[in-house]
Amino acid sequence: MPVEVRIARILGPFLLAMGLTEPFAMPVFAAQTGPVVYLNGTLLFVAGVAILQAYSRWTQDWRSLVTLFGWVMTAAGLYRLAQPAAPQLDAGPGTDAVFLVLIAAGAVLTLKGYRRT
């Protein structure tokens, strides 16, 4: 099984779960302390770098989503490591759009990762 498919099988369900559950946890996120945000940044950074080490190719199909989310997770993790006391996102249309993107990308990656070949 190609590495991008193995990553899609992990990343797809993860993004779906994030996009579907985070809207309900917004009040919890707003109350997080710096150390918790820093820990989250560490996990995001390591996961992003791990994805990029395993697969980092820009193609003209769904596989670029794997690379894109590797870079997004790395950048988001680095930001949270550097700015753990920064305000967290508030609920609103922009945040809702982010959740919809996570759900859509998660659905695509899950379908591509688990489709019969």
What does this 3D model show about the protein?
- By secondary structure, the chain is mainly alpha-helical.
- The protein has one domain.
- 74% of the residues lie in helices and 0% in strands.
- The protein has 5 helices and no strands.
- It has helices at 3-21, 26-30, 34-54, 63-82, 93-114.
- Helix 1 (3-21) packs antiparallel against helix 5 and helix 3 runs antiparallel to helix 4 (63-82).
- The chain is globular and about 45 Å long.
- Find the count of extended strands (DSSP E, 2+ residues): 0
What structural class is derived from the secondary structure elements? mainly alpha
Shape: globular
Low-confidence runs: none
What is the residue-averaged pLDDT?
92
Strand content: under 5%
What labels describe this entry?
117 residues, mainly alpha, 5 helices
Q: Which helices and strands appear, and what pairs or packs with what?
A:
Blueprint: H1 3-21, H2 26-30, H3 34-54, H4 63-82, H5 93-114
Helix pairs in contact: 1-5, 3-4
In short:
74% of the residues lie in helices and 0% in strands. It is an all-alpha fold and 117 residues long. It is globular and about 45 Å long.
